[in-house]
Structure formats: structure tokens, C-alpha cells
Amino acid sequence: MSMPCPTLTTLVHSMRDEADGVISVELRPVEAAPPLPSFTPGAHIDLHLPNGLMRSYSLLNPSTDGHRYVIAVLNDRNSRGGSRYIHEQLRAGMTVPISAPRNNFALREDAVRTVLLAGGIGVTPLLSMLDRLASLGKPVEFIYCARSRREAAFAEQISAVADAAEIRVSWHFDEERSGPPNLKQLLAGRPADTHLYCCGPGPMLDAFEQACEELGYANSHVERFAPAPIRANAVTPDTGYSVELSRSGVTIQVPAGGSLLDALLDAGVAHDYSCREGVCGACETKVLAGEVDHRDSILNKAERAANKTMMVCVSSCKRGPLILDM
């Protein structure tokens, strides 16, 4: 049977407070270990915590750093045990297994114009993007939304980068504006070829996607670390279906209501996976034929319509035959 994605063992080098309820964690290779794999802006890693949970966190430090990974963690009021463990029990000097970096939120460095919209702790992947675009001298605008200034982590760092590169930064604090931002109003007026990136809480991402659609922005990108709500028109197969693996010639059967990933594992097929929620991208698989019922929180509308890839941990077959490049 397949095992989850292989991990790297890292050392918790340091931890520090960054804002109310937010700490940063710097990870480095353990002694005598090889350097950490390189990454690109927007990438994330999975932390495999000692309490048995796995959580994904964006890398916020410059992608040119070759010796460390830095993440930030909000002590979530609705924590399912991951952020609470990191805040209350993880300490400098401990070791923690992590995945190699993956990037489902890649930065288009060739974009003519870029807008980075952060919501609270969602600022983390955008910090690395800001650093990269500033170093390239690319036109970029940064918008930071948070409940209050006290909860706005890395505000001084953003201002320093922006001032040095003459980048426009806009701030919206709900506490000072008597409520959350009107994203359609906030984003209006940009050229149609602008690339817009947003990371933040689920309702903000939903509002961002709606605003971009209404404003006619085709190049919008989001990063989610919690599953998006199931779409109202999603199809749940009431019967099982078969899946052909083109490279091996094997055909497997997925039972009604069953998981394609579980069917693969039960058949002894070696395939990477991690979150089982459709948010990390570890199990992404190329689709050669068949119509997929996409349930992930990674692919955008155009990618789903193209039907070229799927996350086998949550998505299934809407119309077969389903043939995968495996």
C-alpha cells in the first residue's frame, strides 16, 4: 500500500510573536542534513505535528533564502488542534517533519500588473510574492485587510519593502472602518490584464472571486487552507464507477460514495497524498478521459472546465470512462 508523501525532518530554530495571536516559526535543517529544497513565492509546506495532525502553512520568507523556511501561525479560535498545538506546545529546539514545498498559488512574474490582497494571516504567501516582485522592479500594489492593527502581522516589514521599492500599500482595518471591506469597490478600476492574488479567510476568498468575476478580471488567484463549501450543483454519484490507469493498464472499481484515493490505496497503487481535503495538491493527477466532479479547493473555474487534472482525495467521476495518467 502507498504511504503519504515523504517528509523532511527540520529543526525549530526560533519562534517569535508577530501580532496578537500570531507567531512565526523558523525551520532549518537538522545537523548534518542537506540544504532544504528551494521554493518559489506562494509555496507552502505541510507540518506533521507530534499530536498526529497535518497542517499546511505558506512560506513567507524570500524565496532566495537557501537555508531556512519561515511560516506564521494564527492561534485560531476555532482550532481543530493544529494551531493550538503550535502555540502551546511547539518550542525552539524541537524537530518536526515537513513535506517538501509545493506551489498551488504560483506567482506570474511576467504579469504587467499585480495586486496582492491579504486578509489577516493570509498575508503570509503574499509576503514572499511582494519581496520577489520588488526585487524584479515589477508594478505591484499591496492591500492588507485585518480586523485591527494589533492583529496585522508583518505590517512594518511590508512598509519597509514598499517604501524601498516605491510600492503602493493600502490598509483596511475593520475596527477603524466600522466593518469589513467592500472588495468590489476596493478592486475596481484596474486594467483587465491585471493579475490579482488573494489569501485569507474563506468568506473573503468567496467575496474576492465574486468581485473579480463581476469586474471582468480573468486573472484572479486564491489560496485556501480549508476546504471550500460544497457547491450547490455538485454531483454525488449514486453508483460506483471504474477508473482505468493508463500506464499500468489496471482498472479499479470505486464503490458508491467511496473515495477514489482510498480505492487506489486499497488496490496497492503507490500514489502521493497528504491532506485528504483537497487543499494541499499532493494527490493531483492528470486526467486523460472522463468528466470529473471537482470537489477540491485548488483548481480555478477555467482549470476545472479544462478537465485536465483532478485531486483524487476528494473529486470523483461525473461521467466516464475515467482514465488517469497513472
Short key terms for the protein model shown above:
5-stranded mixed beta sheet; 31% strand; 326 residues; 16 strands; globular; single chain; alpha/beta
Low-confidence stretches: none
Query: What does the average pLDDT come to?
Result: 92
Order of helices and strands: EEEEEHEEHEHEHHEHEEEHEHEE
Roughly what fraction of the amino acids lie in strands? 25-35%
Largest sheet: spatial strand order: 9-8-7-10-11
- Report the total helices: 8
Number of strands: 16
Q: Work out the radius of gyration.
A: 20 Å
Q: State the helical fraction.
A: 10-25%
Give an overview in words.
The chain starts with 7 loop residues before the first strand and ends with a strand. The protein has helices at residues 82-88, 123-136, 155-165, 174-177, 183-187, 202-215, 260-266, 301-306; strands spanning 8-19, 22-29, 44-48, 54-58, 69-74, 95-98, 114-119, 140-146, 168-173, 195-199, 220-223, 241-245, 250-254, 284-293, 309-311, 316-324. 21% of the residues lie in helices and 31% in strands. The chain is of the alpha/beta class. The strands form 4 sheets. A 5-stranded parallel beta sheet has the order 9-8-7-10-11, sandwiched between helices.
